[in-house]
Amino acid sequence: MIEFKNVSKIYETGTEAVHDATFTIEKGEFAFLVGTSGSGKSTLIKLILKEEEASRGNIIINGKDITYLRKKRVPFLRRSMGVVFQDFRLLPDKTVYDNVAFAMHIVKATPRHIRRQVPMVLSLVGLSNKAKMYPNELSGGEQQRVALARALVNNPSMIIADEPTRKLRSRNSLGYYEFA
Ligand SMILES: Nc1ncnc2c1ncn2[C@@H]1O[C@H](COP(=O)(O)OP(=O)(O)OP(=O)(O)O)[C@@H](O)[C@H]1O
Ligand SMILES: [Mg+2]
Q1: What is the C-alpha to C-alpha distance for residues 14 and 166, in angstroms, rounded to an integer?
Q2: Ligand 1 mean position to 49 CA, how many Å?
Q3: Which atom of ligand 1 is nearest to the CA of 18?
Q4: β-bridge partners, 23
Q5: Which of 26, 105, 141, 160 is most buried by a 10 A CB count?
Q6: 180/169 Cα distance (integer angstroms)
Q7: Nearest-CA neighbor of 179 among 159, 155, 153?
Q8: What atom in ligand 1 is closest to the CA of residue 13?
Q9: Tens of pLDDT along the chain (180 residues)?
Q10: In sequence order, which residues have a C-beta less than 8 Å from that of residue 68 and are 6 or more positions away?
């Protein structure tokens, strides 16, 4: 569950990227946020991840107000979220396989679990044959699917995707995302 209560974000430059946002996304809900370039979509996602701090208002994730969440607790918050960033944020010196495996490694998954899970999600996004490639050897859509595989691999309770379907063909798009 994601709840925004009168949230505003004003960057240090003075730009107000989010203005008085109030909404709730319930468990199991599949929500789209649509808006023109520069209207604040990516900023809103960064607020959910606590990558940016809200200037005003409260953000409640799974019943917890993260407004005053301590820095040390932020990794635990992010563990429940699978995120596909607009710029993908892949590790350039790691293969497709290792980019996805790394996401499991940092949450201390066992090697056995990693060996089982990574090929499964790569197959899910149609990239089994690209496992040994590096990000710069992939098309934009393929890179985005690696980012999607990485977001899914730890079975997060919510998936947050910035521009998830622009480059994805429908046969690779998943039917729904589940919010918890
Ligand atoms: N780090 C930052 N510092 C200052 N201003 C920023 C910063 N990041 C974004 N902005 C500004 O905040 C506004 C919203 O940006 P944001 O990236 O959230 O838009 P967006 O809706 O994701 O756009 P797009 O569809 O192009 O990805 C823009 O005016 C942008 O210039
Ligand atoms: Mg954006």
Answers
A1: 30
A2: 16
A3: 14
A4: 4
A5: 160
A6: 26
A7: 159
A8: 4
A9: 999 999 999 999 999 999 999 999 999 999 999 889 899 999 999 999 999 999 999 999 999 999 889 989 998 888 889 999 989 999 999 999 999 999 999 999 999 999 999 999 999 999 999 999 999 999 999 999 999 999 999 999 999 999 855 545 444 444 433 333
A10: none
Residue type, 59: I
Residue nearest to atom 5 of ligand 1 (CA): 11
Q: Which ligand has the minimum distance to the alpha carbon of residue 17?
A: 1
Polymer length in residues for the chain: 180
SS3 state of residue 141: helix
Looking at domain 2-79, its CATH superfamily turns out to be: P-loop containing nucleotide triphosphate hydrolases (3.40.50.300)
Ligand 2 centroid–CA 142 distance in Å is: 19
Top mutation candidate among 11, 16, 37, 53 for ligand 1, by most atoms within 8 Å of CB:
11
- Give residues (CB < 6 A) around ligand 1: 11, 13, 15, 17, 35, 37-43, 86
Structure confidence by residue, pLDDT tens digits, 50-91 = 999 999 999 999 999 998 899 899 988 888 899 999 899 999
Q: Domain locations in the chain?
A: 2-79, 96-160
Site of tokens 């098309």: 139
- What single-letter amino acid sits at 19? H
Q: Which atom of ligand 1 is nearest to the CA of 46?
A: 18
